[in-house]
Amino acid sequence: MEAVEPISVKPFPLFSLPAIPFYDILKEMRSVDVFALTLTSKKSQNCLRKQMYLQMNVVKNRWAGMELKYKKTDSKYLSISVNSEYHPEPTNTWKVGKYRIPIKDGGDYINFIWKHQIETHQFLAQAICEAFRIKNLSFHVEYEYGYEATWKLFDNILKFRNHLKVPIFQFKITSLYLNMSIYSDMLDRLSDTPRLIITGDSYQNFTYDHQRPYPKEYLEIDHAEWIRLKDLMLLLKCKQVRLHHVMYVTDRDWNTFLVKWMEGCKLVQINIYGNVIDFDVILGKIPRKPNKNFWICRDNMDVQLENCYEIEREDGTKLYVAKDDHNLILFNNKE
After folding, report:
1. Which residues belong to any copy of the F-box domain (predicted)?
2. What is the 3-state secondary structure (H, E, C) of the chain?
């Protein structure tokens, strides 16, 4: 990878220092190939210990990671610790530095976070993207303390995402506090995101606005109880899909879905776990041949799938349709 030219030092708009030593770190790491930038927010029970993370995942030999941690220790200072970890061996790690930066606005801690966090991350993220010419951006949101705070964080991160001129790679949200409004708005506003992963609460009565597309590259929903046939048909426009706990799709619906898949579509990788009653209804008249070589892991044990069939499209793409107890499993690899 060609060396990246050192970036010019820019004034930091929110703090009194003209620049952060972070730029020296960027210059030292110019040869590192950065493939993703991840923004993660975690909140402890004590709000004074709340930290904001801006993390870079980098590739150099096997694995390395770089992390910026923001923590307001009192009303006047914001502590920034920069950790750089390199893992050719599990024990080989080191820290880069730790800094305390004065805050001009010494207001309430929570107010400071919600008032300034997005602008702060925008500035740092832009610097990182420029320095390493990042083209793929990944967001991972973890939040466990309240619906209002979860909504605020989600809304702010979307604003942050829209501010950066970088193609969005993935948005993953893990939250115990996803109400129907947040869930609906999330799918609506993230319809242009190529990769979307949702793990959290399930809403059986939720309906998706079919005027908007699903993510085109990858969609994973941990609790997909709300998925119906009309949703499955839209998923044929995706390239990769992974759904769990599909409950309200009938056997005839599955047959309709498989017939469409056989006709040819963009969906080439699929892993769906759903209910099944009559396996013969699901397969119908679709040409297939039995396959006895597939195993799944259940309760930390490998179990062979007795009822497994292989179907193949004209383009050579294969899909394996299996029955495990009352679960229908669709997949096209041996994982």
Report:
1. 11-56
2. CCCCCCCCCCCCCCECCCCCCHHHHHHHCCCCEEEEEEEEEECCCCHHHCEEEEEEEEECCCCEEEEEEEEECCCCEEEEEEEEEECCCCCCEEEEEEEEEEECCCCCHHHHHHHHHHHHHHHHHHHHHHHHCCCCEEEEEEECCCHHHHHHHHHHHHHHHHHCCCCEEEEEEEECCCCHHHHHHHHHHCCCCCEEEEEECCCCCCCCCCCCCCCCCEEEECCCCCCCHHHHHHHCCCCEEEEEEECCCCHHHHHHHHHHHHHCCCCCEEEEEEECCCHHHHHCCCCCEECCCCEEEECCEEEECCEEEEEECCCCCEEEEEEECCEEEEECCCC
Question: How many residues would you count in the chain?
Answer: 335
Task: Report helix angle 109-132 to 147-163, nearest 10.
Answer: 30
What are the beta bridge partners of residue 168? Answer: 137
Q: What is the pLDDT of residues 133-188, one digit of tens each?
A: 555 566 666 655 567 766 776 776 676 666 666 665 667 777 666 777 777 887 88
Tokens of 267: 């969906």
Q: Is 3 a residue whose pLDDT tops 80?
A: no
CB count within 10 Å of CB 232 equals: 24
